Amino acid sequence: MHGVEALVHPLVAEELKRKEKQVLFVWLDGGMSQLESWDPKPNTQFGGPYRAISTSVPGIHVSELLPRTAKQMHHLAVLRSVSTQDNSHSAGVPRVLRGDPKNRGVVYPFLGSAVAKLLGPCDSGLPPYVWIKPGGGGFKAEHAGFLGAKYGALAFGDGKPPENLVLHPSISAEENEARNELRQKLNARYANGRRHENVDANSHVFDVADKLMARIDLFDDTAISPRDVERYGTHPLGRHLLLGRRMIEAGVRFVQVTSYHWDSHGDHFNACESLIPQFDQPFAALIEDLAERGMLDNMLVIAMSEFGRTPKINSHCGRDHWPEAWSVAMAGCGLRRGIVVGKTNDEGTFVDDQAHDIGHLFHTWFRALGLQESQMEYHNNGQPLPVAHEDCSAVQELLA
Amino acid sequence: MSVRSRLFPSPALMMNVRRAISALAVLFVSLCTYAAEPLHRRIDGLIDAKATGFQAAPPADDAEFVRRLYLDLAGRIPAANEARSFLGDASHDKREKLIDQLLGSTEFPRHMAELFHVVLMERRGEHAEWQRFLQESFAANKPWDQLSREILAPDASNVSTRGSAFFLTKRLEAYGQNPVDHPGLTRDVGRMFLGRDLQCAQCHDDLFVDDYKQLDFQGLHVVYSNLSIRGIEKFPAIEEKPASKKLAFVSVFDPTRRETGPRVPSGNELELADEPPKGPTPTQLLARELTSPENQLFSHNIANRLWSMMMGRGIVEPVDRHHKENPPSHPELLDLLAAELVEHGFDTKWMMRELALTQTYQRSSRLPDGQSPPGPELFLVACEKRLTAEQLLLSVLQATGGVARASEPPTDELRKRFLAAFAAEPRETEDRPSATVKGALFLLNDDRLLKLLAPRGENLAGRLAKCSDPTALSDELYVSVLSRMPTDAERQEVAAFLLGRGENRDAALRDLVWALVSSSEFGVNH
């Protein structure tokens, strides 16, 4: 999908492709139920009303609420032995998104900021960390923790562009080019004979702004094929995942797509019947598209929440927060395909055997993205900080 | 004197002792100034002494100087007529005259209050009483030690200074879903008043900085962990739990239980009052000790910060990392500045004047020809400073507005937009503002900003529109925005740009002004 690929030698193109690892991170805020999705326990005490269905991989079953995703199972890697430390939203969300590292008195970056720092922007020059979410947008510096504001998220609220991204209506494209050309001439003259850092930093942010403005088409819904609209759906998560795919194709390093209201403490099963298809439809379309385009070889797709939901069904016919035993679905580079790793006990209450914390997942993802041992450390004012919890390690069974 | 009376002298006695000391100090200083060179010469001597092997940049020309000085002392670029009158002035002492003129203007305390507001609050928020406290303090040229004491031990009964508590109360609020960050408050006291970021020393002696001990953190924390917001007041006010106990702590690496009372880092433990209602509170006790002329951490910190504000880089850099492994670039210079500040009763305005008078301050930011450039820590070439959000706002208004100094303060809405585009995020340090994509998009497309640039009445583009002489047009453009005359090549460039844009002259003028305002030369104090 990069214009340059057509012009360069296939081997070089391969090399370019290999280098440009990307991440699409789907965050189902509030907690998707593992029992109604990746780890069904039909006909058991806590199993609920839904059946399990077979998938494109013989022997692997998922909930009947994921019929389309079931057909993409041969691309997926599901970890059913996730067990994390926090059962509150307020603390659990940032804790999981930061990989729950050992407390060293510093605020760790969210996954998107971490990848932005560790892998940098792609050759496209677009900002490395983009967040597509319902509600408002803007620049979210607080995600970056000690890495500093520049590694924060550029958020597209409801998929809309950030403030001031659209070229002002009073300025034509030619005028914009002319004024920028003059600005660059002035800068070159100013830099001549001075230290270059200031002009370089200034030019860089204008270049990024320019690249973003040039891709205003990404926010033009009329450019989307009717077939894609139908396949992804017109609901927010559908539109946002489709935008996410287009951001990835445009060369954004890390795209997070967030969907809210997964916290079904009451009337859980009806909620699932409405919510899970909203995920199933666009997620299956996304995986299918990425696989078809050969993009799964270079990118990591992750779908998860801050925790799972209780096997025990409460008196409001709901499921509460359950960090003890839940599932995360992944696909893409560095991972095996069409597998399930880990298992919960028969009633789905706890993990059987080896449990995996978010730290294990961070190690797994960083390995899958090709990070070397030497890159597994940040330096913060001279303080070395491991990028993921040092007591955890990658889940080997997931790695290709 | 007994230990107790040494620790708790009566206020009246303190006052007398202080008066006597300051009278002696004045006498001493006036005797010395007879003999010694003025401070700014001694500063230059110490900078020169370290310059071995490197050539310094030539002195800044008048245009560089006038722009720099206005930005540093008035927080804005000079108006077109101010720049023209300085450039046209042939007198030899015009630089010194301008320094004194700006230091005497009402813009200087406003600018200092803005600077210190950003340093101390790091964009956590604003409060009218706090802003008024800073503004009045700098207008009265309040000594830094007094100002610091009023911040660190606020007096709720003093209507004119009680806004100072905002430094503490804003940090005693829970933000978002985070609980009240008492260790963060302790850390900021260390960073901002002592130049030491003791964050790592909260849980153990700093592993990388030998000088930062857990005891240093805990000695401050015993006081600040006892504070909360006095909720019933409309103004910022703190509640202090009576503390007569020491604070117990253990290191994460060593389970031995240790304890401390209030203590300034590297100082002696202060004795808490047995009966809390009598005598000073722990905050008062600590604030007095922390700001004492004997506390070198305190005097070095403010000397370094004032230097950094003027020179674009600290003698110790970063300014909150004073320790042995991060030594000052010029140790004798830092000692000298700190000692002189103490001698002059922590007079910040006097120090700014001396700094502005140095050759070091008045050098060009152009690298000297034909040699590898000297490191910025040698201060042989002026360090460039990106304009703060406040400087940008006032400077854009000045550049795009009328010929004379803008008399109206900017509207709240415009100020909000500039801060949103250029200020750092809350709790981020802004000692060295950085370029951001957000800021670039603002300059490129913000409706309110672009309206300032387009021709309207007697604003810059409006004046240019009426200008039929191409040379006069370029000159007015350059002197208004960049505070200098254009070169011939630049005059030709302006003419060519307008010619190339054909009939839509208004849009062409707008874009000309835009290109200058968006350039590094404008966005940087050089």
Describe this structure in a few short sentences.
Chain A has 400 residues and is of the alpha/beta class. Chain A contains 10 helices and 17 strands. In chain A, strands 6-7-5-8-1-9-12-4-13 form a 9-stranded mixed beta sheet, sandwiched between helices. In chain A, strands 2-3 form a two-stranded antiparallel ribbon. In chain A, strands 10-11 form a two-stranded antiparallel ribbon.
End-to-end separation of chain A in angstroms reads 25 Å
Strand arrangement in the largest pleated sheet of chain A:
6-7-5-8-1-9-12-4-13
The DSSP helix count of chain B reads: 25
Radius of gyration of CA atoms of chain A, rounded to a whole number: 22 Å
Record field, number of beta strands of chain B:
6
Basic shape of chain A: globular
Q: Tell me the span between the first and last alpha carbons of chain B.
A: 54 Å
Topology, element by element:
The complex is a heterodimer of chains A (400) and B (526).
Chain A: H1 10-19, E1 22-28, E2 52-54, E3 61-63, H2 67-70, E4 76-82, H3 89-97, H4 111-119, E5 129-133, E6 138-140, E7 153-157, H5 173-191, H6 197-214, H7 226-232, H8 236-250, E8 254-259, H9 268-292, E9 299-304, E10 308-309, E11 321-322, E12 326-332, E13 339-341, E14 343-344, E15 351-352, H10 358-368, E16 377-380, E17 383-386
Parallel strand pairs in A: 1-8, 1-9, 4-13, 5-7, 5-8
Antiparallel strand pairs in A: 2-3, 4-12, 6-7, 9-12, 10-11, 14-15, 16-17
Helix pairs in contact in A: 8-9
Chain B: H1 3-7, H2 11-35, H3 39-49, H4 62-73, H5 80-88, H6 94-103, H7 107-121, H8 128-139, H9 144-152, H10 166-171, H11 182-194, H12 214-224, E1 227-229, E2 238-240, E3 247-251, E4 254-260, H13 282-290, H14 296-311, H15 331-343, H16 348-357, E5 385-386, H17 389-400, H18 412-422, H19 437-445, H20 447-453, H21 460-465, H22 470-481, H23 488-500, H24 505-517, H25 520-523, E6 524-525
Helix pairs in contact in B: 3-15, 3-16, 4-6, 5-22, 6-16, 7-8, 9-13, 11-12, 14-15, 14-16, 17-18, 22-23
